[in-house]
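New to this. Please check this record:
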Amino acid sequence: MTGEEKLMNIEHGSIVLGWGSIFNSALTEEKSNADWECDENRNLYSFKTIKDIKKESEILIFYGEDYIRSRGKDFKDCN
């Protein structure tokens, strides 16, 4: 399930605090190096790497196509 699909399945909003709040969005899912899961029963977000992340590189999570478009980007130009 993509990040966008996960967001669409959440029935309520939430704000991630701490380190999870500083991860930037990758412009495409292929460029992301991390992902997240939400445990609604425990009100907990878990972040995991999906690719090796080199020292001093950004942690990037794909927020979804709608997020990219909402920032004035044309998604087809991001690939």
Observations:
- The first strand starts at residue 24 and ends at 25.
- The mean pLDDT is 81.
- Strands lie at 24-25, 34-39, 44-49, 60-61.
